[in-house]
Write a structure and sequence with these properties.
It is a single chain. The chain is of the alpha/beta class and 315 residues long. It is 50% helix and 12% strand. The chain has 15 helices and eight strands.
Length: 315
């Protein structure tokens, strides 16, 4: 998830139980130009392994060269190809989900990367179920990708036309999992351990991928694993624990300096911070104030005020 799954957020998710993670996707052309801004999107720490670097593009040869460069720089555990992004600026460059409409180009990209990488690391792919409801072709695409050397496929159960609206179609995800011999990872509308258990029980997927739910509630990984192991829900995360994670994320981001100085960092993080606040008492007012924060101390004051208000309500 561009702008979300940076090296710091992945660190937090790993601590909370995520098993395998993928970097923010990066442009193959940006990698080929050795652009510093693009290259930093591939950063990860050894503690985050296994981790893959995700690429997008429409030229198989250039994508393959970019993949080799990344392996030389970073030694990721796998390379992932994004055939699922619905965002206009990616689709307009013949990247992401646009290739679901052009299977020959999709095959050329997948095989180009697989051949360039060879046996250095596995190559995987992420797709949607189709461009729109009239052209749901995930089973066909998955078979092509398997033939092109992909070693696993993640399937988001929506079309590109749906964006993130409507419901994910897990029947199509199940059909994909039954149509190929490589592992298929299902993705879409997974927000709890119950969701994960049900989809694993009702479909042939080898695993599941959690995306947007983690933006608001990264504890979902810990909760899901506990539910799968015990059939029981963990106690709800307390407001104190939630604010502690928000503040830790802010401090780590400032220390990392990826977005610039403290003011620039907090400005860049505003949307991320607002996502964390779903379910907080007085969330609407908190989000309005988070739209204006420029320092960690301002977030600390917000946290203190929110917790004090919650205590007074309980008392």
């Amino acid at each position: 998830m561009a702008g979300v799954t940076d090296v710091i957020f992945r660190k937090l998710c790993k601590e909370l139980g995520a098993d395998v993670m993928v970097t923010e996707f990066v442009s193959a052309e940006g990698i080929m130009q050795a652009d510093h801004r693009t290259r930093k999107y591939t950063d990860f720490s050894d503690e985050q392994r296994p981790v893959g670097v995700q690429l997008f593009g429409a030229d198989g040869e250039r994508m393959g060269e970019a993949a080799r460069k990344i392996i030389d720089w970073k030694r990721p555990d796998f390379i992932d190809i994004n055939f699922g992004c619905p965002v206009n600026k990616v689709v307009s460059r013949n990247g992401g989900s646009s290739l679901l409409k052009d299977c020959p180009v999709l095959a050329a990209v997948a095989s180009g990367v697989a051949k360039a990488v060879g046996d250095q690391v596995p190559v995987t792919a992420k797709i949607r179920i189709g461009w729109d409801q009239k052209t749901v072709n995930a089973v066909e695409v998955a078979r092509i990708l398997e033939d092109c050397g992909m070693e696993a496929i993640a399937v988001h159960g929506r079309t590109r036309a749906q964006g993130y609206g409507g419901e994910a179609d897990w029947e199509v995800i199940d059909a994909v999992a039954r149509a190929v011999s490589i592992p298929v990872i299902g993705n879409g509308d997974l927000t709890s351990g119950e969701d994960v258990m049900r989809r694993k029980a009702e479909t042939a997927v080898s695993g599941v991928m959690i995306g947007r739910a983690a933006m608001q509630h990264p504890w979902v990984f810990r909760e899901a694993k506990h539910f799968l192991e015990t059939g029981e829900r963990l106690p709800e995360v307390t407001s104190e624990e939630r604010w502690a994670l928000v503040l830790r994320h802010c401090r780590l981001a400032v220390e990392g300096g990826r977005y610039g100085d403290e003011r620039q960092t907090l400005t860049a993080m505003r949307s991320r911070l607002m996502a964390y606040c779903k379910g907080f008492p007085g969330a609407r007012e908190i989000r309005q104030r988070l739209c204006q924060v420029t320092s960690v101390s301002e977030v600390e004051d917000l946290a203190a005020g929110s917790l004090a208000m919650e205590e007074s309500v309980v008392a």
